[in-house]
Amino acid sequence: MGGTCSSKAVISVSATKLILLGAKGSGKTRLLYSWLLGVSSVVDTIPTESFNVEPIQTPDGISLLVWDISGDPSYKTKRRQFFHGTEGIVYVMDTSDPVLMQEAREDLVTILRDRDLLKVPLLLIANTRSKQGSFDDSELKKELKLKSVVRERRWDTVTMAAFDQKEVDTSLEKLQNLLKSTWVASPQH
Ligand SMILES: Nc1nc2c(ncn2[C@@H]2O[C@H](COP(=O)(O)OP(=O)(O)OP(=O)(O)O)[C@@H](O)[C@H]2O)c(=O)[nH]1
Ligand SMILES: [Mg+2]
After folding, report:
1. Which of 22, 74, 105, 156 has its CA 20 to 30 A from that of 121?
2. Where, in this chain's numbering, is Mg(2+) bound (predicted)?
């Protein structure tokens, strides 16, 4: 199993492990490298065959190690190997297409029921690709009907309509705040 890590930086062993999941083409790799390099440096991406892993710093200096896992259906049975030790899930969903959105919801429900991810906080990223037909955060939460599935975990949503730098920054801030609030609630971290 081969994966990709572009960084020559030493990866901190104490970095917080995150997994980036979602359907093929939902925008995971583009998001990962937008966090790492900035939106203007990401020209395009190619489908991920297995995974990419990169160290990311949040604005407040939390070190993350983000595992971007292929959304190809053929990789689904392999992705569980990445779940153990995960402290945060980022799930990217294309909400511009109702069929893709329903499929993504079902996939997310399966992931959230995994025993290795039961209390792990979730940031749900709605990559709407266009302003048209996009949901705001509270509409999205209502539409997805995830209350009974997320249960005890902390979760938040962020909507990205244009994939611009401001939205990318907001998503990283939301992720950071979600992790911090989780750690405050369970200080043994
Ligand atoms: N216009 C537009 N294109 C996007 C957006 N997000 C991703 N893309 C493009 O959609 C394609 C797929 O994006 P990726 O980030 O590679 O998708 P992925 O989720 O990593 O897909 P897999 O690696 O196959 O699981 C790429 O060409 C991206 O540049 C977006 O918000 N707007
Ligand atoms: Mg990818």
Report:
1. 74
2. 29, 48
Alpha carbon of 48 to ligand 2 centroid (Å): 4
Task: State whether residue 110 is helix, strand or coil.
Answer: helix
Per-residue pLDDT reduced to its tens digit, 85-103: 999 999 999 888 888 889 9
**Which ligand has an atom closest to residue 96 CA?**
1
Complex-level ipTM beyond the 0.90 threshold: yes
Identify the residues whose C-beta falls under 6 Å from ligand 1: 22, 24-30, 44-45, 47-48, 70-72, 127, 129, 163
d(CA 56, CA 1) in angstroms, rounded, equals 23
Name the 3-class secondary structure at 21.
strand
CA distance 61 to 165: 19
In the predicted model, residues of the chain with pLDDT beneath 50 are 1
Looking at all shown ligands, the one closest to residue 52's CA atom is 2
Q: What distances in angstroms separate CA 56 from CA 27, 35, 64, 147, one per listed residue? A: 17, 7, 5, 29
* C-alpha 185 – ligand 2 centre gap (Å): 32
| Residue 158, both tokens | 């962020």
Going from the Cα of 132 to the center of ligand 2, the distance in angstroms, rounded, reads 24
